Every structure is written in structure tokens, then in C-alpha cells.
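Re: [help] complex structure
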Amino acid sequence: MLKEERQQVILEKLGTDKKVTLVDLGQILSVSYDSVRRDIIELEDKGLLKKVHGGAIANSYLSMKPSRGLGIVNTEFVTIAKKALRLIENNKIILMDGGTTNFYIAEQIPKNLEVTVITNNPHLAMALGEHPKVEVILLGGSFYKRYQITLGSKTIQDLEYIHADLYFMGINSISIESGLAIRHYEESILKQKMMEISRKTVTCVLEEKINRKENYKVCNFTDLDYLITSLNPTDEILKPFKNKRVEVL
Amino acid sequence: MLKEERQQVILEKLGTDKKVTLVDLGQILSVSYDSVRRDIIELEDKGLLKKVHGGAIANSYLSMKPSRGLGIVNTEFVTIAKKALRLIENNKIILMDGGTTNFYIAEQIPKNLEVTVITNNPHLAMALGEHPKVEVILLGGSFYKRYQITLGSKTIQDLEYIHADLYFMGINSISIESGLAIRHYEESILKQKMMEISRKTVTCVLEEKINRKENYKVCNFTDLDYLITSLNPTDEILKPFKNKRVEVL
DNA sequence: AGTGTTATTGCAAATATTTGCAAAATAATA
DNA sequence: TATTATTTTGCAAATATTTGCAATAACACT
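Output below.
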């Protein structure tokens, strides 16, 4: 069996199941665990899926579209998007970077809202094709295939001349002590710049990301203006995040 | 058994199985692996399949299209892409804008070529995910949904600091009197800028676009460096385009 | 903190590819 | 038909890729 064949099978399985585990794949494809992992890495580098602990999940951008019609959308996303949309007002300039959550929120923006969305995520830009009233500005720069965003000094330079009202920051981990952090250095720098040029910053985090610690810190928790989770703001988990400066939604 | 016969068999098998291995083929055709391998290489050069470690898989683009019944367009793309690739050399900076033809050419760039592709077309940027050695730079600016490209003064401004070796210009019409023209004003301005910052400009046109006249002129025919069509350069239709300055491929 | 699971890394064996070369087959020419 | 040029083919040595394994590190869950 050819490597490409295997990878095709992986993508197909991912298309239907939205997630796969390395162990399962190893058996289905009857190759070693290592080979499957290497396949997953290759596919991730091409931006075709997202590697996670123990397996892989469908690339949000690719998998979201179909899921819309099927109603299997993660309820966590729905809850988060609802809260997020409360912050989006008419005629505002919204800055959004990469990440599943942002993509989903962007799709949920009401069709009649006239906002400008600035993003370094081409998928998000294209998804907003369905919103005739939303003006989309794509940030240029080196295209980082793995995360499917533009990145680098050019992207940062572009931000120099932009001022946004609200920044939706995608994040990989959040904790009181370590603040907000992600896995990629260059991207962390970019996010800092994005905060700088935005009047307010909000981050939408999935439950699993709370109290984790990724490698590159973007900012302190208290630098945020809003924190959105799928949890009730009074939830026990969010207790440490109660803070005068940051509004927890 | 003639070489052409073998290659026909390979393509047929590929049509049904979507993949072939060199070992299988060697046995079926009862020739050495080397011959089969050379056949595969030839077929890949023609854009009829994709060579992979240990065999070959059906070319994604081609296997997709026939189902839509557009067999003729295919060969036109293949012919054009082949000619276009002759112009793409290692370590060059290639500028490509929107359009189907450019998209297809980008996909056909050899995997081992180390080039930088600058584009205002996010789809093209993402398609190059399959090319690990190709660096992709996405031009920022207002995202124009209809044509799925970035556009506007920001995009033009970005080009101010870029110098490309070769510009693949997508075009809607070409004629001797009216030159090269497209349907959208802003885009025509952008294309002019792109020409300006590129050492050489090439345009690849489908037969149907020859001698048509769209609204907004980009440049004269003689401003081009290369013209690529699916036709033979000596074809009657191309006779008026014979010119000392422009090389017709 | 402890335990089982998953990741990473380096390594070596197996498998594929590339390249140059010479023999064989084919085509072209006188 | 004989002869020469061109292409095609198969082989072998040198490279490169892929694969599975094992040791170690990182992680997640109780």
C-alpha cells in the first residue's frame, strides 16, 4: 500500500468521522503506529488536518462547512459563538486571527450586520463570502501552511496602519499564572501586535484549553477585556478568573 | 510491446484503480521496473498522473474533471501548464494572480523546485500546500469575494517592495488591437502594477479568449514577454500574434 | 505523585530512486 | 539491403526514502 493511499484513507475517514486515533489507523491500514504518525504529520504540514494527542481531527476550516448542514456542530462552539456575537456591533472593525473558534464565529455573524473583518486567515476570509455586507480585509505575508494563516514581519508591518475595535484572539491555553499562550513563536508576536492595535481584546476558549500551558506566552490574563467560554460565568472552573478588569461571559 | 501501448495500459489501470505500483506493472507488462518507471516519469511530465514513491496515483485534477464531462478543457490545461513550466526555474520569484489557469499551473509545479510564489489568490496559496519546497507569500488587501482575490490600494502598495522574476497574468481576453483586457477595473490597475514589478510577464490563455474584447485594458499585446496557448505556435489563429518582442509558446 | 498512554528521537534494515553505461531494438538513410 | 543514428531497455552502484523498533521524554488521568 502506497503512502499516498494511506493518507487518502486517513483523510476520507476524517471526512466522515471528524476524528481518528493513531491506534485505529494503524490497524485499519496495517502499518506501524509510527508510520501513521508520520502520515499525520505530513498531512498537518499541508494544512489538511490537525494533529492532536493520540490522533488527528479534521481541519476545522475544511470540516466545518459540511457540518453546518448536518447539525452535528459541537455545542460548545454554538454557545461560544452566541456570546461572541453579543460583542459584535454594527459598523465596527473586527480583527480575527486563526483558529477553529474564530472561524465558526465568523460564519455565524448575522447577514445584515455591516462590519469590517480583518484577518490573516484566508479560510475565514473565504467563508465570509456568504456575507455580502461584511467587508473583508486579508492581511498579507508569508503563508504558513501548517496553520493556514499568514505570518511574519510583513503581516505585523501591515497592522501598523490599522486600528481595530475588537480583536478575537485565538489561543491554545489560558491560565492565571501563565496567561495566554500558544505553540508557535512567530504567531505569538503577531498576536501581541494585534492586541496593541485593537481597542478591546476578547478570547474564546474551549473548556479543554483552560489551565493548560503552552510554550509561547502572548499576554497576561488581565490584559484581556473579555473572556468567553462555553461555561456559565459562575462556574467553579472560572472562579480563579473572576477579575475586575476582565469581563467573563 | 510498444512503449505507447504500455503507457496506455498504465493509464487505464490508473483510471480504474486510482493507483498503481511499479511492482505490479512490471509483472503485468513483463518489462523491467526501470522501463515502467521511465514510463511513469514520461506520463507525469505530460501531467497525466502523479508519481509517488513506489508507484503512481491518479492526478487529482484530471480524475476530478472527467466526472463533470469537461474532457476537452483538460487537455488544454495540460498543454498550457507544460509550456508554462518551462519558464519556471529554480530559485525564482514567481508572481501569480487569480484565474483557473494559474491555479492549475501552480498545482503542476514540480515538487523539487524551490521557488517563491507570490499571489493575491488564497486558493492558489492553499493549493501549494502539496509543495513543501515552495514558499508562498500572500498579498494582503481588501478581499474581493466575487473573484476570490485580494485587491485594492493596499495590495498595490505591497507590490511596491517586491520584485518578481516572472509574472503569470490571468486574462479574460486578448487581441492585437485591444491588447489584454479583463472585466474589473480595480483588478486591471493591479495587473498593471504587477507587470511593472516583474522582470518578465507571461499570460496563458484558453483558446476561447483569443480575439475577444473585455472592458478594461491592462496592456498592449507587445508589452508581454511570452504568450502561451494550447495551440501550436504556428497555428493559423496565432498568426497575427507573431511578433519580434513577444515569444509565442 | 503514580501509572498507563502517547510523543519524540535516533537508528538500522528494507525498499525505491537515480544515474551512467552498454546492449538491444527501432527508425532513418543511402 | 546494409549502415548509421536514435531511441529504448536492462543492469548495477551510489543515493535517498520509507519503515519499524527501542529508548527516553512528555502527557493525561486517577
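The longest helix of chain A spans residues 3-17.
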